Hints:
Helix content is 43%, strand content 13%. It is of the alpha/beta class.
Amino acid sequence: MTLSGPISLHGGHSGEFCCHARDGLADIIARYIHMGFRQVGITEHIPPVHETFLYPEEIEQGLTVDFMYQRFARYFAAVRQLQAEMADRIRIFAGMETEAFTGYLPHVRHLVAEFSPDYLVGSVHHVADICFDYSPQTYEAAVRACGSVKDLYLAYFDRQFEMIDAVRPFVVGHFDLVRIHDPDYAARVLHPEIAAKIDRNLDLIKDLNLVMDLNLRPLTRSEAEPYPTRSILEKIRSREIPMVPGDDSHGVAQAGNHVETGIRLLEQMGFDLYWPVPRLLEIK
């Protein structure tokens, strides 16, 4: 069985359950229905395993690891309820977006056992336990911790390889997120050492029969192209790895953004527009 038509399998972050998002989850799903989506994946961020990994806005609000865990439990209760209530209008897949900071693997195992998500999006936002995509300043801190921008890329793709191999996420999220604050990323990903790690990671994704996220959030920020960049998309296409759009939305106004653009891009490049149904794979 496959899925077709407008779809996002990475996004649906809401202000109810994510401090850097807006609006209610029900309103976001109603927006997808209004836009003609027959299916959507909702993938809230997992709670942190330690106070070290709280975002600045969460610290400012006085939030704790325990509060974040309880809020995540409320998220799963809410998405399951909406899944049932809206079943005649839209097929909702209840997922979660993983992290890859210190201690993440037993934490993800526990969350999967506790909440039984329909599928996982596997993401890397941290290198050297620094959330490099949070701001240009944290990106520079990660660069300093690694030694250079090139070394940040190498460390990122090594951590991503470990995450993919251990977590076996159905969707590999924003594959080249490490480029976020690098104006020279198009040339950087062609550096022989970096390209070798990209190839290695793509080969693992292919071997495990995973799906990749055509992450459209950069287009919402008026950037030139989605994640991954064109040269990596061509490598993915040559391996015949499925790619599925993800709006990575953080509110009603972003829900479904640029999905049709993403589907046209995939069609132009010769990707299959029938996508596997999300499922939960066994974690190592």
